[in-house]
Known about the structure:
heterodimer, A: 97 residues, mainly alpha, B: 415 residues, Immunoglobulin-like, 3 domains, five-stranded antiparallel sheet, 11 helices
Amino acid sequence: xxxxxxxxxxxxxxxxxxxxxxxxxxxxxxxxxxxxxxxxxxxxxxxxxxxxxxxxxxxxxxxxxxxxxxxxxxxxxxxxxxxxxxxxxxxxxxxxx
Amino acid sequence: xxxxxxxxxxxxxxxxxxxxxxxxxxxxxxxxxxxxxxxxxxxxxxxxxxxxxxxxxxxxxxxxxxxxxxxxxxxxxxxxxxxxxxxxxxxxxxxxxxxxxxxxxxxxxxxxxxxxxxxxxxxxxxxxxxxxxxxxxxxxxxxxxxxxxxxxxxxxxxxxxxxxxxxxxxxxxxxxxxxxxxxxxxxxxxxxxxxxxxxxxxxxxxxxxxxxxxxxxxxxxxxxxxxxxxxxxxxxxxxxxxxxxxxxxxxxxxxxxxxxxxxxxxxxxxxxxxxxxxxxxxxxxxxxxxxxxxxxxxxxxxxxxxxxxxxxxxxxxxxxxxxxxxxxxxxxxxxxxxxxxxxxxxxxxxxxxxxxxxxxxxxxxxxxxxxxxxxxxxxxxxxxxxxxxxxxxxxxxxxxxxxxxxxxxxxxxxx
Lengths: 97, 415
């Protein structure tokens, strides 16, 4: 299937990213691999600065665990915001006309 | 809440594996790959959530039900049309949520197309639709949302009556036969069939039921044979209020539905006073009949036949006698003689129009529905007269409290 083939390509691309060794090369490869994985690239430019920022944080701190924990915290906050939006949508939908 | 698809699960597993690699090997590139994949998933979730909210906000629902007032156990046909703006890359499906007391499953509906389905209302009272379920998915996430704000129209379901069992003589209209008062030519029993929800308790044959161990009802020849013409006399605007009109409409719609089910078609004549509003000589389309009934509202009759009675009414008046004697009796006898002399010469355009309508339908029975308890009933007498001279059987269905037996009516039932 098309989705499975794309996913296998993504896995192969990630192996390349890990094998790159250099953080800058890894960043460039990662952006290319994700762009190739996507069918619809509208709005993709939002993701690229976030990835660059994260790569800069890794390079600056030089500590893998701390940056991963920081990212997890940030994503957790984002998840809470999404949940809040979802809750508001459910309340709106539950109102009787 | 949004749910991940299989692709998203695979990407998450890949990110987890890369995280483990990054921690075990202390590899910044693996940490970058893992973090980027997590950021990617979060970005897609954000994207999906925004598109889903946009689609939900643009939802427009048009739901049509052929009848909003119906009897418990009756079927209602629903047509649903939903429009919404579908964001790029998103698949959307919609499903109607029938009332909680309804039996029947609504199919999935494509946006912009009309879905039709049938439900059966099992409990009485007021009820409404549960809303619309909006199901959306893209390559990474899916979500369902029940939008309750699209619950119109509300339905009103009347219970299957048990007035006979309770022994009450209620004023107004109920939806069952509770009192067959007279039959000039009494209908005979054509057969028996198993009791169904909605059958009048008075039709249960207790002896047959006891012998067979299950409830059986009698089927009368006068009620079930032949093709009927349904003649519906509309209620007057000021008469008994909207509640009365709603119940009357429900009774008539129920009769139409039964006629269509049992004979796969019927003829319909809608009158008000001495005026014909609609005439459907023969139709097999239930929606057309219900639409015709729905379009006509209670109105003040523009034509009264009291002063243009026609031969039938004059003949009926001529048969009046004023007792055994005395001056009043003599007067009435002379009046009857005069009326009888003029009866044959009297002309009635309404009666002639009804006669032409009866000639067009191949009916053997006329089921005459009227909400009138008081007032001028000349038009009913003319309809009955026209039916009788064509050899049709006339079944009059009227509310309790009907004071006068119209000459020519074979069976009278309380509705």
